[in-house]
Design goal:
By secondary structure, the protein is α+β, with helices and mostly antiparallel strands. The chain has helices spanning 41-56, 81-92, 98-114, 125-136, 148-160, 170-180, 191-210, 241-250, 258-271, 276-280, 337-350, 369-383, 386-390, 399-410, 415-422, 426-432, 441-452, and strands at 3-4, 7-9, 13-17, 20-29, 32-38, 61-62, 287-288, 295-299, 301-302, 320-321, 331-335. The strands form four sheets. Strands 2, 3, 4 and 5 form a four-stranded antiparallel sheet that branches. A three-stranded antiparallel sheet has the order 7-8-11. The longest helix has 20 residues, at 191-210. Residues 233-446 form the Tyr recombinase domain.
Amino acid sequence: MKTTYDVRFSQIQQRSNRGTSVYVARWRVAGKERSKSFRTKGLANAFMSDLRQAAKAGEEFDIATGLPVSMLAPEASGPSFLEFAQAYVLRRWNTSAARTRETDAYALLTLVPALAADAPRCPSAEELREVLRIHVLLPEKRRAELTTAQAAALGWLERASLPLAALGEAHVLRTALNAISVTFAGSPAGANTVRRKRSVLHHLLEQAVEEKVFSSNPLDGIKWTAPKALTIVDPRTVVNPAQARQLLDAIPHVGRKRGVRLKALFACIYYAALRPEEAADLRLRNCTLPETGWGLIVLEKARPQGTKRWTNSGETHESRCLKHRADKETREIPIPPVLVAMLREHIAEYGTAKDGRIFRTGTGGSYSSSAYSYVWQEARKLALTPEQIASSLAARPYDLRHAAVSLWLNVGVPAVEVAKRAGHSVDVLLRVYAKCIDGQQEQINGKINDALNE
């Protein structure tokens, strides 16, 4: 650390920053101009008073920061939150799925700008998020070249980002929690979004504990209640078998070709309870399709959709292991004759992609979520009544999976078997589908009534 006694003080200046008055304290250290902005004149005067008293007492000033040695933060030599956030993302890159990378980055797009000092010439939050999105939070080979304005925004962020150690202070953590509680537009954020972002912050701080920045996770000491998120399936979204058939029959009537090619995909979601990304990667080798009777699907991979900058291949779709499963772990689902027939008919008509995928676009690609969601919404208009269309009944393609699992539970398939076919643990299955298990209330009421009358 280089120090000097060469210090000169200037007057406090009032300026307007985006319509808000700020007060700028100015001084020179070793001939280099220094400044710090404050929201009130009183704060600026107090800061300048501290500087003058330090100089009067004969203290040395740090040339790098412009501050007296006594005012240097103990953590000044540690990483900034920006530096640690970048390292956190890059450290997890090779072992994370594309959606996990995107979730991490989405949380940090909120947290990094929020955890910065109130410095002058602050870029807009949108400018800071763009720099993080296209450059900072990506591996070096994937980073975009920055424009002059973007480089200036990054420079500001590097200077203003709070030290990571500052997150040991309760008021700093509350700033972070307040930031993740609203959207980029400033409206209240959804409960699931808030919980995901807090989870990222908590895990990041766990990494900091491992690196001895903190003795324990400081977030655990903050009394803060996350908003409650809906974790159970709403039975109002679940279609019965007749409604499911009506919807599947309506799909071929949507568009010229897309609906016809997608009917069997939607049928896999309903009759086999596949997740859409599992149906997208279903291959001929995964299917046993006899001419009569039940068949079998042995799932190996899923094909989730992501943003190109976060995927390994740079494409929107890429195959990966099944959700909540180890690499190369499979899942077996017996499938009823009606689905066997649909798959046989689909394969006979359209064949498969070069890699064996059953469901593909006319050019061999994968259907985007927006493409099959459009088809689904149009099919709802054809198959449902106006009241049903306006309701949440089968509002999303994924609701077909909920309908399948609910049906299996309600006809008496043991929960262990349902969980095995659906790719859930039993406890998650029963918690998520608790409100969709019907037909038992009268029997239960009868047992209670018998007990009361004994």
